[in-house]
């Protein structure tokens, strides 16, 4: 296909989104367009509406006004079956892993595949072991219950589960929270490798500036009830706005500039 005709439908397109709880407005005329292959970090102060925005994108709650399109589809107009089809195209890693505590690591990863009810069990077995191998979990550890795994291992198993259905889009909520610096660093390089190998689009919420600058191709700053700035890290941190200055200044800003010097393309 000639390049000019290749469709560039954004993976996510949010138009004039309003979110209101009673009289309290969280998002006002919020717009955001995410193209395929980006790693987007959502940042903003506490209560700025990051989690609520994620929930809107996932179609968990309908917006007060505005539209949310994922893979070109209006998420709030899709019927149940269609919504499920869309959901199978993304994976979500929750902050605390959110594993089923009564299932082994293996069965936690197998669960989304079993739910599809189309794959034979022997194929599921191979696919689960492959996903666990990708995130560095051995077959022996796969048989353990979540309570017998370390925090870092739980995150990796939860990531394997989020990747179970080969998603095109991955949501990460505070992916490195609760990990020590070494584990956090190896989790970041795992995400980076998976992003390169699977051409994933990633949307993450993170307060960890190291993770943010190591991974993001774009940063979306949520403030004043909208996306105040959106662009590559090097551009966003130079935006002249009190929140952005405060967020990236001082020690945080120094680290940011260091990482940007190490990765001058970002
Ligand atoms: N179901 C709800 N009913 C009423 N208010 C809500 C509801 N969900 C969220 N809010 C409010 O909306 C605002 C945004 O919340 P949200 O959890 O999205 O913020 P956040 O940016 O993710 O914050 P944090 O970084 O602290 O997790 C908060 O003031 C919160 O109290």
Automatic annotation (TrEMBL):
One GO MF term attached to the UniProt entry: ATP binding
Transmembrane segments: none
Domain of life: Bacteria
Membrane is among the record's keywords: yes
Keywords: ATP-binding, Cell membrane, Membrane, Nucleotide-binding, Transport
Pfam families: ABC_tran
Cited Gene3D superfamilies: P-loop containing nucleotide triphosphate hydrolases
Keyword DNA-binding: no
Coiled coil regions in record: none
Boundaries of every ABC transporter domain copy: 12-249
The name this protein goes by in its record: ATP-binding cassette domain-containing protein
Organism: Noviherbaspirillum cavernae
Classification of source organism: Bacteria, Pseudomonadati, Pseudomonadota, Betaproteobacteria, Burkholderiales
């Amino acid at each position: 296909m000639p390049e000019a005709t290749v469709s560039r439908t954004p993976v996510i397109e949010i138009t004039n989104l309003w979110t209101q709880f009673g009289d309290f407005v969280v998002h006002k005329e919020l717009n955001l367009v995410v193209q395929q292959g980006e790693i987007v970090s959502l940042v903003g102060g506490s209560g700025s509406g990051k989690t609520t925005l994620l929930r809107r994108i996932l179609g968990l709650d309908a917006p007060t006004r505005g539209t949310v399109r994922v893979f070109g589809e209006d998420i709030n107009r899709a019927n149940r079956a269609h919504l499920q089809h869309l959901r199978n195209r993304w994976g979500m890693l929750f902050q605390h892993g959110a594993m089923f505590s009564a299932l082994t690591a293996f069965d936690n990863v197998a669960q989304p595949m079993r739910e599809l009810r189309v794959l034979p069990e022997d194929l599921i077995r191979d696919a689960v072991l492959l996903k666990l191998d990708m995130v560095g979990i051995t077959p022996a550890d796969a048989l353990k219950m979540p309570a017998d795994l370390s925090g870092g291992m739980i995150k990796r198993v939860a990531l394997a589960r989020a990747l179970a259905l080969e998603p095109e889009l991955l949501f990460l909520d505070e992916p490195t929270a609760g990990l020590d610096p070494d584990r956090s660093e190896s989790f970041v390089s795992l995400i980076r490798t998976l992003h390169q190998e699977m051409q994933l689009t990633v949307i993450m919420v993170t307060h960890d500036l190291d993770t943010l600058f190591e991974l993001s191709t774009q940063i979306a700053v949520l403030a004043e009830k909208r996306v105040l700035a959106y662009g590559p890290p090097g551009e966003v941190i130079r935006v002249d706005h009190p929140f952005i200055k405060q967020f990236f200044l001082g020690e945080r800003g120094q680290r940011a500039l260091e990482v940007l010097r190490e990765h001058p393309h970002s």
